[in-house]
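Target chain:
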Amino acid sequence: MHKFWEGKNVFITGCTGLLGSWLTQALFKSGANTVGLVRDWVPRSNLNRLRLWREINIVWGDIIDYTVLERALNEYEIDTVFHLAAQTIVGIANRSPLSTFESNIKGTWNILEAARHIKTVERIVVASSDKAYGSWENLPYNESVPLRGLHPYDVSKSCTDLIAQTYYHTYHLPVGISRCGNLYGGGDLNFNRIVPGTIRSVLMNERPIIRSDGTFIRDYFYVLDAVQANLLLAERLNDPEVCGEAFNFSNEKRVTVSELVNLILKLMDRKDLKPEVLGKVKEEIKYQYLTAKKARNILKWETRYTLEEGLEKTIIWYRKFFKDWKNRRDKIKELDL
């Protein structure tokens, strides 16, 4: 692993999430002193499965609590911040926009304001999203496209992105912004998302559910590629060409939801399970995919995993996850007897 991170004091918001857990593992392997912000204890989270709670310092608190953030950055003498914490589910955002706005918008200004007052902080990566762009006819998105989210989750990420830009341009805070495509990988416990939801359905011998009409287009980005992208962005923030900039990260392979589901069925050798297409999705962007040309040219970044390779690794993770879960349930049932 890269020697850059050895001995660095790193603070991660959202360390129990999909990207956060794998990023925490990578930093631990690289010798960083990692501090994670944890709001809820999730026993089956990937952070727990990797046993990383034994290896990092944990600060209990919510991203919307400014005093918790300032105390953590100060007392642990943090030099690097990865701000990943967010409410990431579109359906939840539509049902409850206020909690989403608090987590995603207020949470962002809280961590950046705390970092502005703690002089040990040298670099900050803020996780934005492809959703920050909103809906555009001319695709793929590049970083010069204006941010114009319309629906609650999209708006919250547009705001996240713009607030990060504000703190760079106004206060010269060393911020970099990552805009990733649709993340997938082992450790995502939000089973209403298409990748983990499809894999779970197959493992339970059920037909996978497609909430849309199946024609929505996305680029699906493997989480371990996203880890390396965020680490590289942080490492390069002392470069004037990088600091204050936003970068798209994507494998640049666009597929429809139906194509993705059928690929998973093929990889799991269950093409007999025909997807159930509901056609009920509303208030979501239909066509959305990125170009990562800027990251390739300036950061010299490239993906390491094809879509098929990433899905194969993800399927392996969930097979073990559900096998372990079943074994634990069986043991508890035995105790009941």
Observations:
- The first helix runs from residue 18 to 29.
- The mean pLDDT is 94.
- The domain at 3-182+221-253+288-304 is CATH 3.40.50.720 (Rossmann fold).
